[in-house]
Amino acid sequence: MFERLKPYLPSACLALLVLYLGVQALTGERGLLSGPERHRALDQREARLASLTEARAELETRVRHLRSDRLSRDLLEERARVVLGLVDPRDLIVRVSTPAPSPAAKDRLPELS
């Protein structure tokens, strides 16, 4: 029985290869049907890039104001209070309880304080 099918074996292998490549062309990682998913991922990454760029610009501004040649006394005092935990006796302190951020949220954006 195998002898009768032997001439069709190369054609069957070629047909299976064409079928496999066709399915991959449609549904693969870079296939035709995965376009909207790629666009969604690109939009998310662009939004993340924009937020990180904004955070970086803010950090660069803060660093520029902390340099010795352009020292901003207000920013220096603010940083000293935050780092050392100092307060002015005339300050009004309002404590607000906030839920602790999840570990995954801490990895997304750098802390700005």
What's the SSE blueprint?
Blueprint: H1 2-5, H2 9-27, H3 35-66, H4 73-84, H5 103-108
List keywords for this structure.
113 residues; 5 helices; mainly alpha
Q: What can be said about this structure in brief?
A:
With about 110 residues, this protein is mainly α.
Order of helices and strands: HHHHH
Strand content: under 5%
Low-confidence stretches: none
Q: Evaluate the radius of gyration.
A: 30 Å
The number of distinct structural domains comes to: 1
What structural class is derived from the secondary structure elements?
mainly alpha
General form:
rod-shaped
What's the number of extended β-strand segments? 0
Separation, N- and C-terminal Cα atoms: 78 Å
What level of helicity do the residues show? 55-70%
Task: Compute the average pLDDT.
Answer: 82
The protein's oligomeric status is: single chain
- The number of helical elements comes to 5
Q: Summarize the biggest pleated sheet.
A: none
3D architecture notes:
The protein is built from five helices and no strands. By secondary structure, it is mainly alpha-helical. It has one domain (2-87). The longest helix has 32 residues, at 35-66.
